[in-house]
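Example complex used in Figure S2.
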Amino acid sequence: MKLQTPYLMFLGDAPDQLAAKTAQGVVDWRPEICIGQLKLDNCNADLGLPDLTLNEAFDKGVKTLIVGVANRGGVISNAWERTIVEAIEMGYDIASGLHNRLGDTPAIAEAAERCGRALYDVRHPTETFPIAVGSKRSGKRLLPVGTDCSVGKMYTALAITNEMKERGMKVSFRATGQTGIFIAGQGVSVDAVVADFISGATESIAPANDPDHWDIIEGQGSLFHASYAGVTMGLIHGSQADALVLCHEPTRPHMRGLPDFALPDIGDCMDANLHAAKLTNPNARFVGIAINTKHLDEAAALTLLAETADKYGLPCVDPVRTGVAAIVDQLG
Amino acid sequence: MKLQTPYLMFLGDAPDQLAAKTAQGVVDWRPEICIGQLKLDNCNADLGLPDLTLNEAFDKGVKTLIVGVANRGGVISNAWERTIVEAIEMGYDIASGLHNRLGDTPAIAEAAERCGRALYDVRHPTETFPIAVGSKRSGKRLLPVGTDCSVGKMYTALAITNEMKERGMKVSFRATGQTGIFIAGQGVSVDAVVADFISGATESIAPANDPDHWDIIEGQGSLFHASYAGVTMGLIHGSQADALVLCHEPTRPHMRGLPDFALPDIGDCMDANLHAAKLTNPNARFVGIAINTKHLDEAAALTLLAETADKYGLPCVDPVRTGVAAIVDQLG
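Predicted assembly (664 residues):
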């Protein structure tokens, strides 16, 4: 799978801005490939992009319509279906982050078949992966890991990727979730592969490379999340990370979706992740800590970053507030 | 899914006894439900059961034809297809442990549809599972974990189940792999569910129960196996094990299928598993060690068991050589 760029962002009838979170993430990180947005009636989200019709965007060279919003009730409405079919007939590929598959809507499947266009359901891997072999691959790899889900692992990975690019380093962002896949144009939703293949899929997306090339692999879940830790474990083993970055959100009251579970201590979390990582890379080490301080004021944020850096003897940054240069300084 | 018993064991044209390993496992643990075996020409496996035709077995009350052998080259041959279709038309359900799905063979799918019989592909879960919630469930649970794959975790779980039944304790074996599912008549191949649902599937198969009831959950993989540890991690969290049993095979030269990976130290392995288990059950503890000593002579085996028991302060048994009574003594 390799999504063709540039993109037109389809917002459908998104009820609010939050429903367009995935689309917003793509615009934030790849504004140069997001040419415009397409809204239907009753759309309450906006990405700050030009409003374009399918025809207008196609004339500007757009190749793929990105469905980066949640649809109401999990059903593709008639209005959505008409728009998507029209796009296919005009020559667009369609890439969707919906839970339901595009091809499960007969009119969409029929149009794609008839017009020879591609349908990409980025939540639903269709490739067959090998079982992980664990053999050392050339090249270097960095993996953000978290005290919890949704603490900024993708944001951290993308910020590190950009910082390394600016320094002229050889680097690739490797996507493991839907927003990351739209951003990178390729990748695998590792939480959606068959369980036996989590590590194998991860090995596949970050293959052997030049000795001085870095894969920055999007993290998923947390070893301390009772619902998803299996995904995280397989991702750690398959990534063979040389470098780990601990990601944390300091104001969260409990593990995401699990009111009975407190967040782990940062030190305990680093110990557990390092222990797991050393199975496939005995030289794995933490190179920094990334804290999402958006809910703290500037003074409190900077104090926390400084204290955490001091406590663990590692660079401690907020990718938004301070940038990630101090972490990239650790990557030889 | 609940397989109807008794079973007729289909051996097809199994090239050797090893190809019938799954079928043999079912016969070993549930001889009372395995009424006979059915071989085709060139079958080189034998389960020591009466050879019965489909008609003879049906007359004896058999309900399900168990396809518990590997098929050559992953293709269902014409001879297999004829036999399976004939069974369906006679009134059998079919349960298969093949990698390919029964319903992918059109004649088999058509016959099942036409005759209203069930096709069970036990390697391919069809249920939808919830995301794991991690909340404490009533009842008690035991999970065997291993230094490696295929070190006797299922055997240990079944032996403990039988010992507890003999003592009149409330106990259920919960199957997580194909042989276990044939033995229990139900269960889920947890290594074949979508990665996000490993823990959720495990929670589903071992639900809340009487406070003095034990679920003995079949283990899978190893936290130290670079290919499959994600499955093991999710299984540990979903099981909320009160009691863990460490399973080990002392003569293995390296991790199964991974020549570059040595087996972990038993103590390190117990530490890692206990750390993972405490996330969803802070009271988790090891209650014993099960060592597969079949490649050792009696004197060496008994010495190893005694030394290991002494070193870790836990009952140490070989389920085959010594039985598991010493472990069950630990379960209140």
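Chain B touches chain A at residues 131-135, 190-196, 198-200, 223-224, 226-235, 237, 257-258, 260-261, 272, 275-276, 279-280 (CB under 8 Å). The CA atoms of residues 45 and 184 of chain B lie 23 Å apart.
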